[in-house]
Amino acid sequence: MPIAISTARLEARISTDLHSMLKRAAELQGRTMTDFVVAAVRDAAQHAIEQAEVIRLSLADQKCFAQALLSPPQPSPALQRAFARRSKLLRAE
């Protein structure tokens, strides 16, 4: 039995020039215009999400980050007080 795939519809008004460009690009790749547009939109969405979620560090920053993980600094007095308050609150629950 085939698996049902849910779909949604997307509509957009575009200029006739853009429509012609998309149609030509799809033809050049041997795709339907729908396949071409869906693939392009998927790629653009993945790129936008990656840009928002992936942190890129310089080599120096990577080394600094790794060093902080391997040898974390001692907690400051303020951080120690915060942990003590947190522990007290958790015991009170």
TrEMBL record:
Top-level lineage group: Bacteria
The UniProt record lists the keyword Acetylation: no
NCBIfam families (UniProt xref): YlcI_YnfO_N
Keywords: Toxin-antitoxin system
Gene Ontology process terms (BP): regulation of DNA-templated transcription
Keyword Cytoplasm: no
Pfam families to which the protein is assigned, alphabetical: TacA1 (PF08681)
Name of the protein: DUF1778 domain-containing protein
Family named by the database record: Belongs to the TacA antitoxin family.
Matches recorded under PANTHER family: ABC-TYPE TRANSPORT SYSTEM, COPG FAMILY HELIX-TURN-HELIX PROTEIN-RELATED-RELATED
InterPro entries to which the protein is assigned, alphabetical: Ribbon_hlx_hlx (IPR010985), TacA_1-like (IPR014795)
